[in-house]
Design brief:
Length: 292
């Protein structure tokens, strides 16, 4: 049985991603000859060929493609274990909370205040990020718990729905569609959302990893809406906190609502995480949306 080392996996991933021994050696900060020897030793140890080498190119074999996939997963797990262990070993371990600013339905201040009264509470570190960044933070150990809207990639996570609210379309005030009292997604054919998706094909699913443009902040999104460049589907709670005279909001009959959730790794056994999840659910259950 082969006992692979983290070092070997890092070397192989560098070569497999660069498909060039020189670039891979530079990337990991070592000379090329020992890197080549390390890959040959890994192939000998596994008893399979991982790379096809010619004088012109390096390509992955079927075995190499499988190892690349699993090695990435293994290295991510090692990095996550490192971060979680370091946090747990601190004199006062923190609860690291990931969220996207303004995507908390206005509940987060009350959640934090009530959480700090719980006997199992830990000091909270806030990890703010853009859309789609919360789940990777849970996977790689940077965060212990997250507040985020559905849908998201649920692999390896547990989650609790907190609050469901309608979404509206945000349009420039002088947009011809703003004169209507209600719309369907089909009416938005040809319009584009801030993340580059077609508005009439909106499914609630984020673009694939690597396909999403840089995350935009709210000020930029609002400016683009006012200029008529994009439309957007914000939840009602965000609209109430950010009214602007240059933007009109209209209901879209076949647009799915927004469901806010609290999520955490399935492997978590943290009493601090359990306490936060419990408090978040209690706060959401007693929440009354403001009028207007």
């Amino acid at each position: 049985m082969s006992d692979l080392e983290v070092r070997q996996l890092r070397y192989f991933v560098a070569v497999a991603e660069e498909l060039h021994f020189g670039r891979a050696a530079e990337r990991i900060g070592m000379a090329q000859p020992p890197l080549s020897r390390a890959i040959r030793e890994l192939e000998r140890q596994l008893g399979v060929r991982l790379l096809e080498r010619t004088t012109r190119q390096v390509t992955l074999t079927p075995a190499g493609r499988v190892l690349l996939r699993d090695a990435r997963t293994a290295l991510d797990a090692v990095a996550a274990a490192d971060r979680r262990a370091r946090n747990a070993g601190r004199p006062a371990p923190a609860l690291r909370l990931a969220f996207k600013p303004d995507y908390d339905a206005g509940l987060l201040p009350r959640m934090l205040a009530e959480y700090q009264q719980d006997p199992a509470a830990a000091p909270v570190e806030l990890l703010m990020g853009g859309r789609g960044e919360q789940v990777p933070a849970l996977w790689d150990g940077r965060a212990d718990v997250a507040i985020l809207p559905m849908p998201f990639d649920e692999r390896g996570l547990d989650f609790e729905p907190l609050l469901t609210e309608p979404r509206l379309v945000a349009l420039a005030a002088d947009d011809p569609l703003a004169a209507r009292t209600g719309l369907d997604l089909a009416d938005l054919a040809g319009r584009v959302l801030p993340d580059g998706m077609a508005a009439d094909d909106e499914t609630g699913t984020p673009p694939p990893q690597g396909k999403r443009p840089p995350c935009r902040d709210l000020a930029e999104i609002f400016n683009l809406i006012e200029l008529g460049t994009v439309v957007w589907f914000p939840p009602l709670s965000l609209i109430r906190r950010h009214r602007r005279p240059g933007i009109t909001y209209r209901p879209v009959h076949d647009l799915r609502p927004s469901t806010l959730t609290v999520a955490w790794p399935q492997s978590s056994h943290s009493s601090a995480v359990a306490a936060f999840v419990r408090v978040a659910a209690e706060v959401a259950a007693t929440h009354t949306a403001p009028a207007g």
